Amino acid sequence: MMCVHVEPETTQIALLEGRTLVEHYVSRASDDATQIDGNIYRGRVQNVLPGMEAAFIDIGTPKNAVLYRGDVRYDKDDIESGASATQPRIEEVLRPGQTILCQVTKNPIGAKGARLTQEVSIPGRFVVLVPDSTAFGISKRLDDSERKRLRKIVDAVRPKGHGLIVRTAAAGASADELRNDVARLVSQWEDISAAAGKGQGAALLSREPVTAVRVIREELNREYRAVVIDDLALFEQVRDYVGAVNPELADRVEYFDPTEEPLPVFERFHVYEQLHKALSGKVYLPSGGSLVIDRTEALTVIDVNTGKNVGTTNLEETVYRNNLEAAEEVARQLRLRDIGGIIVIDFVDMEIRENRDKVSSALRAALARDKTRTQIFDISELGLVEMTRKRVSEGLIESLSTICEVCEGRGIVFSDSDL
Q: How far apart are alpha carbons 78 and 83 in whole angstroms?
């Protein structure tokens, strides 16, 4: 289920599997300049750096965004040098002062600006429209029979000159539902394209909907038993949206009246207590082991300990069972804390190679439920797993905290008398 808690300055969204919190989102009114993933802009090229194969683009945010060579779209006739190379240099495609249409693929984080692409995509409920493209695809999470059924429908509703990607949420969708979704997206693209031609400066052309609606668009399917919202205005907005795009699920959107309920929504569904645990650097496993999660600017390190887990048979079996538990919990914590970038997991050493392989497989299986793209390598002889998880926005801790002004985030305060 999904719980949405609205306060004057923030909106928090919790996704639960059973009673377990698996994902958490925070949206603030001040996030307009930082939570911009998916927004479409008319950008103005500020400068081009051939040595970095990148260009800095003014999109009207405090920091210029960056557009890398691999994300540039171009017409061969527009290349300044006239070269016919299959991969022209970025300075041949872009020049300072040029106006381009672009979309944010990664929020600005810390000192880094947003990342852009010119391969614009517009997500709908069942499909993603890729304008002026030949792209075509169907979610690999769907089974073969469903993929074949959807391919026949999409071949009939696919708009001329545009690409389509069919989402996992399209499972069971009818031809009319897909056709209406495509028509709505094409109309939205026509409005964006028209607005892009009406000016030269940086401008926002299309904003992603509010976080609650965006999460529901990405997440809501027949597996959800309820979406509980404690704000009447947002409840009506979400109910109308779900009623328009997926009427059969509209009755699962429920209003949680805080004036009649004895407990706030996040307390009623045990979200707060799980959030407090997720902000801790230590996570306890059911059998007595623990995880210690340490985040740095360069990477995140997760140390697995047996702790109070002393087992019953022998050391290898105890360590193996502890590591299996840890693999499942690591995958959950990565989703819940929204940890991205390089991650190193230090499992307790196992002597038997087969046990290491089973733990590695368990970690991969647990990460398969994570929609954020991950890349994982096998357990090394030192018991370490190296992996990456795509970083789209700031993590849970950053979204709920500010840097300490005294120690500047280092966690230590120097003694004045010794300096």
A: 10
